Amino acid sequence: MTVAEARPDAVVVATRAGRATVALLLVLATAAQARDAALGRNLAATCSNCHGTNGHARGDLIKPLAGMPADKIVAAFNDFRSGALPATIMQQIARGFSDDQVRAIAAYFATQPASP
Amino acid sequence: MSSRAALSRRRLLAGLAAGGALPWLGGCATPSGGPSIGRVVVVGGGWGGATAARYLRLWGGNVDVTLVERAPSFVSCPMSNLVLSGQRQIADVTLPYAGLEAVGVRRIQAEAVAVDAAAREVRLADGRRLPFDRAVVSPGVDFTPGEVAGLETAAAQERIPHAWKAGPQTVLLRRQLEAMRDGGVFVLTIPTVPYRCPPGPYERACLVASYFKQAKPRSKVVVFDANPEIQSKKVLFERAFAEHYKGLIDYRPNAELKEVDAATLRATFDFDDIRADVLNAVPPQRAADIARSAGLVNVNNRWVGVHWLTMESTAVPGIHVLGDATLAAPLMPKSGHLANQHAKVAAAAIIQLLRGESVNPAPVVANTCYSFVTPDEAMHVTSVHQYHADEKTFKVAPGGGLSTAASALEARYAQSWAQNVWADMLAT
């Protein structure tokens, strides 16, 4: 795929050098996105022992996280921490992750299809 | 690291160009397209090894993964105390490896006898050689029964089961409990820490006592603990002993097993001795034999030191070690749950190393252990462990903790946990 195919609106300004720069920036951005996605993926894998691989839970007791909107997951973490959402275990686990980590976990599960 | 990845890619491309000296590659290489980025051999199909095989395929796509495991199927230690008390059969905690094969793991049921980092190959008892770019060794523990006089022989360990690896030993101990007379004495001995599954022995005491209460009410459970106190969920187990099993469980700390007599089932401690009707001696533990022969055991002559960022051995580069065999990071118990989490750190790192990329600098792992105090009530301990780059280890994060009380709800969560984590590791 060329840069022009990827970003038609960029073509008008694309001199030879400019095109190379845009291509480089796209490569860097893609690499950074892949890294962030892998971080979210790795963090979310700490949840899968109870919540199922990629958030696809088995049984009817555990909330499946796959496909849940990210803001709902973040809000649930906050409510577990404050005690607004009573739990047996999540009130303890939720305090072990930073806010950035919770956002990365939420973003990952939000992009998973609801069924595997 | 990146040169190794480049080398493996070159070797692979050369192999393909030469007309394919890689006969089994075709079956596993292509779900995500492109040529294989490397060969990983996983030794041991327990909590760590099975999870590593599954996640190398899930996250790596085009990694060639071979899993070597001597058993035909997986048997879970967690939940196996419920087999001793009769709520579950051994078949209920036995699961197939077919799911891993369906996601492209090449499974070989065989005994691995050597992991040769210099030759980069795993050797099997039948003489086969499995080449690798990186290896995962998740061997679990072996026992040091030689530290207990009288427990050295296989015959003695049949008469005095450990049942600390789930499978035939679990069934054997259940049969002994069933055959025991009402009014008999069940003796459980606990080795000094570290041992596999810190709350496991206390859960076992509770569940065997619950079986006695219902089936053999004049019987007793006597627990001899080499440690000075209960090693996990102490307050909650003390409450369970007092509330459910008063006069039934006799807990004796600071009692290290010195000698057993397999003929009479007499057990001798420093300042105590007892004759049992059923004697369940959990022997002292260390990293399993294959870790020792591979040169991986480098701490206290028992455990494997690892770089926590990658789970790579501190003794042998290119070999990643998981689970109970490792020298634990501070306050990190030897649990199946954590072996699963170790495996995910290793899988992510191995894929990045094979690709010549830098590894995740801030991994996180978490632990959750449920224990049953009666067949219908369970409780948990949980912790989150964040990597600290300055100290190069995992440390316990804020939060975590214990149940306020054992409950029927948490017993349901424990069953749900088992269902989900088994599926996570075995791709069922």
Question: How would the blueprint of this fold be written?
Answer:
The complex is a heterodimer of chains A (116) and B (428).
Chain A: H1 3-6, H2 16-44, H3 48-51, H4 70-82, H5 90-93, H6 99-110
Helix pairs in contact in A: 2-6, 4-6
Chain B: H1 2-17, E1 38-43, H2 47-60, E2 63-69, E3 74-75, H3 81-84, E4 94-95, H4 98-102, E5 106-109, E6 112-116, E7 121-124, E8 129-131, E9 134-137, E10 141-143, H5 154-159, H6 168-179, E11 185-190, H7 200-215, E12 220-225, H8 234-244, E13 249-252, E14 257-261, E15 266-269, E16 273-275, E17 278-281, E18 285-287, H9 289-293, E19 297-299, E20 303-304, E21 306-307, E22 312-313, E23 319-321, H10 336-354, E24 364-374, E25 377-388, E26 393-396, E27 401-402, H11 408-426
Parallel strand pairs in B: 1-2, 1-9, 2-5, 9-23, 11-12, 11-17, 12-13
Antiparallel strand pairs in B: 3-4, 6-7, 7-8, 10-18, 14-15, 15-16, 19-20, 21-22, 24-25, 25-26, 25-27
Helix pairs in contact in B: 2-10, 7-8
Describe this structure as you would to a colleague.
The complex is a heterodimer of chains A (116) and B (428). Chain A has 116 residues and is mostly helical. Chain A has a single domain (3-110), classed as Cytochrome c-like domain (Cytochrome Bc1 Complex, Chain D, domain 2), CATH 1.10.760.10. In chain A, 57% of the residues lie in helices and 0% in strands. Chain B has 428 residues and is an alpha/beta fold. Chain B folds into 2 domains: 2-142 and 286-359, 3-Layer(bba) Sandwich (FAD/NAD(P)-binding domain), CATH 3.50.50.60; 145-283, 3-Layer(bba) Sandwich (FAD/NAD(P)-binding domain), CATH 3.50.50. Chain B has a 5-stranded parallel sheet with strand order 5-2-1-9-23. In chain B, strands 13-12-11-17 form a 4-stranded parallel sheet, covered by helices on one side. In chain B, strands 24, 25, 26 and 27 form a 4-stranded antiparallel sheet that branches. In chain B, helix 7 links the parallel strand 11 and strand 12. The chains are: A mainly alpha (116), B alpha/beta (428). Chain A binds chain B through residues 38-39, 41-43, 45-46, 48-53, 57-59, 61-62, 88-89, 92-97, 101, and chain B through 55, 58-59, 337, 340-341, 344-345, 348, 360, 362-366, 368, 380, 382-384, 386, 397-401, 403, 407, 409-410, 412-413, 415-417, 419-421, 423-424, 427.
